[in-house]
From TrEMBL:
The keyword Ribonucleoprotein does not apply. SUPFAM superfamilies: Periplasmic binding protein-like II. PROSITE patterns: PROKAR_LIPOPROTEIN. This is ABC transporter substrate-binding protein. Belongs to the bacterial solute-binding protein SsuA/TauA family. Keywords: Signal. It is found in: Periplasm. Its main location: periplasm. PANTHER family: ALIPHATIC SULFONATES-BINDING PROTEIN-RELATED, TAURINE-BINDING PERIPLASMIC PROTEIN.
Length: 332
């Protein structure tokens, strides 16, 4: 009888092990995915939520995250094999494709769907009109980057020629733009969060407009992988995207203070109250994508903005550089 009981318990243990293994991608043996992110930003909140809330772990993914600080560095990391997945602007895939890459990066999941910058005025204004910019000194982003391309696109939409209707400054490094404005350079500046809200809280500047709201949906930040990696590791990327989608919906449903608490550990020396303030601003304007599926209209808007800025090397069809099957598989 004891032998029968032992055999039964052994069989039951094996059944439980098989059942547990079937619940998540990769089972007890975690599958490693190396991700290079272009910068560390509250703009990427759903991604950090997927990490902090264990959504990647639930899918059997051991995520290795590296911040590579800059689009060029991030793309180099991906193309050289230093990363499996890159989190960076979708425009980079067009640049690489135009260079006749044999194994081009393909966009497979969208994270943010608007520009993430804000127009900050040095003076507190009773009201703001875009014409107020004419004749002013405008501290913009670097030439050729998505923030500057979006900025110029929005100015043109409002009848402003950025190169003749204002004094446009573009020769300051990205990391030094906030300090340049704080030290007195410019009447207006284009800033990412949390710097925009921090300046407003400290009385250094005042947010008067959102470039994200003004420019519409655009695949501003996406996850991409080389075509060969997608072909070889599609199931792994489906699991990755499934975890991301859970996080996107979680961020959309949770109060901003709960989201802030979930990601604050990713931002040393940033108060949770400021993180919540930024999350609220991005959520309220729909910057966080609630679906990983990159839409054709957003892709066309991206190319329109690049073309207007004179930075589009060639028109690239949506189907060439966007993989929809991974996101569609998750959304089913």
């Amino acid at each position: 009888m004891k032998l029968v009981k032992k055999a039964f318990l052994l069989l039951l243990s094996l059944v439980l092990i098989v059942a547990i293994s079937a619940c998540s991608f990769g089972g007890s043996n975690k599958e490693t995915i190396r991700v290079s992110e272009v910068t560390r930003s509250i703009f990427y909140a759903p991604f950090y939520v997927a990490i902090s809330q264990g959504f990647f772990e639930d899918e059997g993914i051991d995520l290795e995250l590296t911040t590579t600080w800059g689009g060029d560095n991030t793309m180099t990391s991906l193309l050289s094999g230093g990363a499996d997945v890159a989190l960076v602007g979708a425009e980079t895939t067009i640049y690489v494709y135009a260079q006749q890459a044999t194994d081009p990066p393909i966009n497979f999941a969208q994270l943010t769907q608007t520009d993430g910058t804000f127009l900050v005025s040095r003076d507190q204004l009773d009201s703001f009109e875009w014409d107020d910019l004419k004749g002013s000194t405008f501290l913009g982003q670097r030439t050729g980057g998505m923030p500057q391309m979006v900025g110029e696109h929005v100015l043109k939409q409002h009848g402003i020629n950025p190169h003749s209707d204002l004094n446009l400054i573009q020769n300051i490094d990205f990391g030094n733009i906030p300090s340049a404005f704080a030290s007195g350079t410019g009447d207006y500046v284009q800033l990412f969060e949390p710097q925009a809200s921090l300046f407003e809280n400290e009385g250094i500047g005042h947010i008067v407009a959102s470039f994200g709201t003004e420019s519409g949906n655009v695949p501003y930040t996406v996850f991409m992988a080389k075509q060969s990696y997608i072909e070889k590791e599609e199931e792994k990327l489906i699991a990755f995207t499934r975890a991301l989608t859970k996080a996107q919906l979680w961020v959309d449903e949770q109060p901003v203070d709960v989201v802030a608490e979930a990601i604050v550990d990713f931002f040393e020396d940033t108060d949770v109250e400021l993180v919540a303030q930024v999350v609220d601003r991005y959520k309220s304007q729909g910057s966080y994508a609630t679906s990983p599926l990159l839409q054709p209209e957003a892709w066309e808007n991206l190319q329109l903005i690049m073309d207007e800025a004179g930075e589009l090397p060639q028109q690239v069809d949506y189907t060439e550089l966007v993989n929809t099957s991974i996101a569609e598989s998750v959304l089913k």
